[in-house]
Amino acid sequence: MAVYNKCIPLTYNTSIFDINYQHLKEQGIKTLFFDLDNTIIGYDESEISPSHIRFFKALSKSFQIVIISNSGKKRVAPALAKTDLKYVWHAKKPLKFGFKKALKMVSGQKSETILIGDQLMTDVLGGNRYGISVILVRSVKRKSDRWITQFNRKLEKMVIRKIKAKLPALYDERLKAYVNDHAV
Ligand SMILES: [Mg+2]
To answer: Which residues of 87-119 are buried (b: 16+ CB within 10 A; e: fewer)?
Structure first.
């Protein structure tokens, strides 16, 4: 199967705060995976804010949560130090390694898990390859992207062009707003 088929998210939301978690709960979702960089905080921020801490505390009452990041421990551990959140660093998304590790940590089921992230080539591709649905969110701060992310963004543009050409209805429904929100 072509790669672009695996780069289509379940939905697109403007931020992690705008997702209808109640609906996910009703659908039987029990575990939430979150990407860290540019999904929760920008690259130029070193730790999550008090409002994030409150948000995750409330969300933890309904879901098991694991943060899955491609960044190293030096970045991830201090960023989450003021929380009780479980995390996986150097997750190597879009490979399956980090997802497997995270699911094991909470004894979760793939079918009851959703990933929330901001990148097509790591989060959406990775989640779909592993067999879990992915909610795409707007990047917190795209300007602070690292070089590897900038490279992924170039690939992402090509993939989005392909999806738009091959699957226009899905593009309109799930990616058009994402593209428009990031248009400079
Ligand atoms: Mg990210």
So the answer is: bbbebebbebebbeebbeebebeeebbbbbbbb
